[in-house]
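Consider the tokenized backbone below.
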């Protein structure tokens, strides 16, 4: 059961991974929990800084997890956290904000400095909105983070990306952090941070190793659920449901065109994916597309081949039961996979539990991309409104 701290406990509570910290029951801004957990952080905005000038005690990164244009994401398997800056509307220069983007610029400049890199950098504490019955402004602690990620260069971990709204273009930062392997941030260390001492005896070991030697010891969590339930394959927000409905209705009577869309969607998942051929329906041999996944260096490539099948089946929307992908369809794909190949199955619906279970228990190399995944992949690639999805479908996938 998830650990939960009441509003009265906040001033003395430790920061514990995935614990929930409740706001005051009245829902007022003054009862917001972060400012009580970390005095001096403020109670508004995505960036909440303690300290003056360039000398920060800590920086809080708050995310609602609901911004469709700027989807902050935490990869639990790798510990990588993607966070977007605070220039989210047109009319402002990249750093002409309330200060969040300047905080990011300074942190990543120090990270890659040649003279004493990481010196003076403050820890970043990540919190996510988490409503509870007793607190509408309650939050969940997601971890202690530091700028950068193992293997990423100075041109990859902080990037200014362009967006457009109603014809107006503007830039915002996309920053990549590592959540360190720190299960508990103690109240003792928080008190010492408030005094400007980040390397005291109470400092977490993973933090000390990063500051002193640049070692990224990430908090990684291998998933225990390998068979996704109906709920985990089904869109969980109104936007995702609307996007999946739009895709399903567009291809409902054009399954062959959906094959092209499925291949295009898999390209969106990973830049190392290469689609070699969309096979013709009459001679596809059970494969709707074939391609390769780049494993090696681009100058010395090693490829893993894959076969892709697309199933434009009715999803579980609007109270109607889904047309699920069952054992027969999955077995057909497995039979087409040769040695050292893998399979990809893309469906607007869900994969039945028995089929899912057999694939995972027998360790068949099959990737399932279900209805919820389709919506999330489109959103992550900027197709985050029905209008944008409709334009994509009409422009690229005419029958």
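A designed sequence for it:
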């Amino acid at each position: 059961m998830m650990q939960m701290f009441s509003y009265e406990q906040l001033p003395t509570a430790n920061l514990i991974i995935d614990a929930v910290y409740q706001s005051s029951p009245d829902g007022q801004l003054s009862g917001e929990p972060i400012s009580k957990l970390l005095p001096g952080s403020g109670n508004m905005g995505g960036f909440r800084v303690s300290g003056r000038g360039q000398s920060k005690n800590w920086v809080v990164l708050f995310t609602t997890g609901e911004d469709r244009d700027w989807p902050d994401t935490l990869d639990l398997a790798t510990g990588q956290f993607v966070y977007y800056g605070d220039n989210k509307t047109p009319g402002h220069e990249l750093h002409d904000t309330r200060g969040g983007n300047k905080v990011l610029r300074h942190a990543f400049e120090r990270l890659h400095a040649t003279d004493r890199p990481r010196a003076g950098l403050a820890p970043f504490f990540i919190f996510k909105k988490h409503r509870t019955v007793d607190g509408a402004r309650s939050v969940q602690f997601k971890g202690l983070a530091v700028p950068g990620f193992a293997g990423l260069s100075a041109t990859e971990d902080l990037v200014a990306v362009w967006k457009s709204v109603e014809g107006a273009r503007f830039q915002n930062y996309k920053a990549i952090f590592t959540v360190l392997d720190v299960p508990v941030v103690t109240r003792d260390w928080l008190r010492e941070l408030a005094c400007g001492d980040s390397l005291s005896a109470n400092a977490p070991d993973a933090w000390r190793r990063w500051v002193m030697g640049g070692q990224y010891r990430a908090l990684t969590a291998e998933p225990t659920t390998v068979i996704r339930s109906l709920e985990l394959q089904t869109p969980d927000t109104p936007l995702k449901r609307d996007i999946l409905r739009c895709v399903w209705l567009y291809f409902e009577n054009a399954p062959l065109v959906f094959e092209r869309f499925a291949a295009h969607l898999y390209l969106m998942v990973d830049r190392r994916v290469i689609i070699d051929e969309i096979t013709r329906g009459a001679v596809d041999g059970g494969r709707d597309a074939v391609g390769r996944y780049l494993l090696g260096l681009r100058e010395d490539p090693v490829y893993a081949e894959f076969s892709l099948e697309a199933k434009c089946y009715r999803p579980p929307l609007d109270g109607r039961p889904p047309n699920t992908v069952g054992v027969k369809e999955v077995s057909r794909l497995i039979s087409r996979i040769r040695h050292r190949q893998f399979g990809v199955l893309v469906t607007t619906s869900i994969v039945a539990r028995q089929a899912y279970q057999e694939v995972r228990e027998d360790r068949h190399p099959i990737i399932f991309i279900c209805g919820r995944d389709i919506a999330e992949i489109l959103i992550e690639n900027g197709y985050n409104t029905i209008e944008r999805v409709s334009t994509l479908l009409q422009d690229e996938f005419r029958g």
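The chain has a mean pLDDT of 91.
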